[in-house]
Write a sequence for this structure.
């Protein structure tokens, strides 16, 4: 099969073909500078404020369209090849009748200065397109976790969101969108691969081709959701000479269960992966919902977060505590290692040149295992952790039979607290042993001070979080109550 250089997608219901755009052209740049669609705003250029939010659609495994809000400011245009997306200009009806989302925002006075309004509308439009027409407050807050209003006008926006289903129903027409996406599937059968602006871009369709291309060019940037790599371009002004995009490999979007293990492919989105993980570990629901924001989780991947290797990434501590493994691939060769062995030092991993993470494998729930994860940050939503801790404990007649403790934000990598674990293993699960383990954390970590927290705060927080885990597992007095997908603290 040959290759092509034309990027094809539907924009606001109209087929577009863009010949060999510079690979790092952001969707925001394309919309504003090449299509004069200025409703999509640039507020931060880092996927934080939501002013650039658009709605993307692709077909799921059952052939149904999935509608997701994404950040146009950090998403590269070629990654929308074969997809459909909408801007705020494409929401109203052809006769200019406002969409229910828009009309609700007008009626409930949800717009003040107006700069953030298009982004809010598009996040809510995604929810509406998903069939959620009258969401409760908790669902609205989760959906809008990636949208900031500098005028602090959230109450009328939330009211509008909860009322949008009371208006006459409107689009998108899912049948029409399905036909568009099937049409694109025919047009995009050949893999996208081209050079432009001194950069190369390739989007293979099979794992074998991906492995071959990366082995041939191990210096290439392996791109998934771009929620971190996008900032390399918009904030660090880096020029990415060679990009290999993995999200067009259908096999990498699969999740499967076998032999007591949940396998999550490298293309599985954060939201989809966390939804599956929390089937086994509902205690991680809060971590899922506080991980970045809905648009970031709708674009980034779980394996991408692990491969990024940031010491303040929230995925690694939880999966290390669970004893997850990763499947590494180099050409035709694969090997499996514990996730914790991937991280050697800051910016240094055990991956060989040309080797990539094909999947992460998470143990399915041991009924006797008690787990928890806690995230401390200055904001509740969409903020980087000062400390993120995770625990997995199994008791045998009140004695610690196994214990795994992992932290992010405490060292140059996410890693286990081996000395604290040793202080607990084989000991009764009681306060004296936990106090000893709390002191052992000072041997496990030498945290740094930065804008998020001082080293002393981080250490004290890590010690107190271990004590919190003890209190939650050693007494019959609940310290928090689980209710569906949300957590209510008591």
């Amino acid at each position: 099969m040959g290759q092509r250089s034309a990027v094809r997608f539907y924009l606001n219901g109209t087929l577009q073909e863009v010949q060999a755009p510079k690979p790092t052209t952001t969707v925001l740049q394309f919309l504003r500078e090449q299509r004069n669609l200025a409703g999509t705003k640039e507020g931060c250029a880092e996927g934080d404020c939501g002013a650039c939010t658009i709605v993307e659609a692709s077909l799921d495994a059952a052939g149904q369209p999935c509608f997701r809000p994404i950040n146009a400011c950090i998403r590269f245009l070629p990654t929308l090849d074969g997809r459909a997306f909408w801007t705020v200009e494409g929401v109203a009806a052809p006769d200019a009748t406002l969409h229910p989302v828009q009309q609700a925002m007008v009626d409930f006075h949800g717009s003040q200065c107006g700069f953030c309004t298009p982004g809010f509308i598009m996040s809510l439009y995604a929810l509406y397109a998903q069939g959620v027409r009258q969401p409760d407050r908790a669902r609205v807050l989760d959906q809008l976790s990636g949208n900031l209003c500098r005028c602090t006008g959230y109450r009328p926006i939330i009211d509008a969101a909860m009322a949008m289903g009371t208006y006459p129903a409107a689009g998108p027409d899912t049948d029409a969108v399905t036909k568009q996406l099937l049409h694109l599937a025919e047009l995009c059968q050949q893999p996208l691969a081209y050079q432009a602006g001194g950069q190369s871009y390739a989007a293979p369709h099979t794992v074998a081709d991906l492995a071959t291309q990366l082995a041939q060019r191990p210096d290439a940037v392996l791109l998934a959701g771009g929620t971190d790599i996008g900032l390399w371009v918009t904030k660090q002004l880096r020029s990415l000479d060679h990009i290999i995009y993995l999200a067009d490999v259908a096999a990498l979007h699969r999740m499967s269960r076998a032999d007591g293990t949940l396998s999550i492919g490298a293309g599985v989105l954060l939201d989809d992966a966390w939804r599956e993980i929390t089937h086994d570990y509902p205690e991680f629901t809060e971590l899922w919902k506080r991980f970045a924001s809905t648009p970031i989780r709708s674009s980034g991947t779980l394996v991408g977060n692990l491969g990024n290797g940031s010491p303040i990434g929230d995925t690694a501590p939880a999966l290390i505590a669970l004893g997850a493994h990763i499947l590494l691939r180099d050409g035709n060769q694969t090997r499996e290692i514990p996730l914790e062995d991937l991280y050697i030092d800051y910016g240094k991993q055990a991956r060989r040149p040309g080797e990539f993470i094909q999947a992460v494998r998470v143990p399915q729930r041991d009924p006797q295992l008690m787990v928890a994860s806690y995230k401390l940050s200055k904001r509740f939503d969409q903020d980087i952790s000062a400390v993120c801790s995770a625990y997995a404990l199994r008791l045998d007649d009140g004695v610690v039979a196994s214990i795994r403790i992992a932290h992010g934000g405490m060292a140059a990598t996410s890693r286990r607290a081996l000395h604290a674990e040793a202080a607990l293993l084989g000991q009764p699960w009681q306060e004296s042993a936990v106090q000893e383990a709390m002191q052992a954390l000072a041997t496990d970590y030498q945290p740094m001070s930065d804008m998020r927290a001082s080293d002393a705060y981080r250490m004290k927080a890590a010690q107190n979080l271990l004590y919190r885990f003890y209190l939650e597992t050693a007494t019959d007095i609940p310290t928090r109550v689980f209710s569906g997908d949300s957590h209510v603290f008591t």
In short: The chain has a mean pLDDT of 95. The radius of gyration is 23 Å. The chain is about 30% helix and 25% strand.
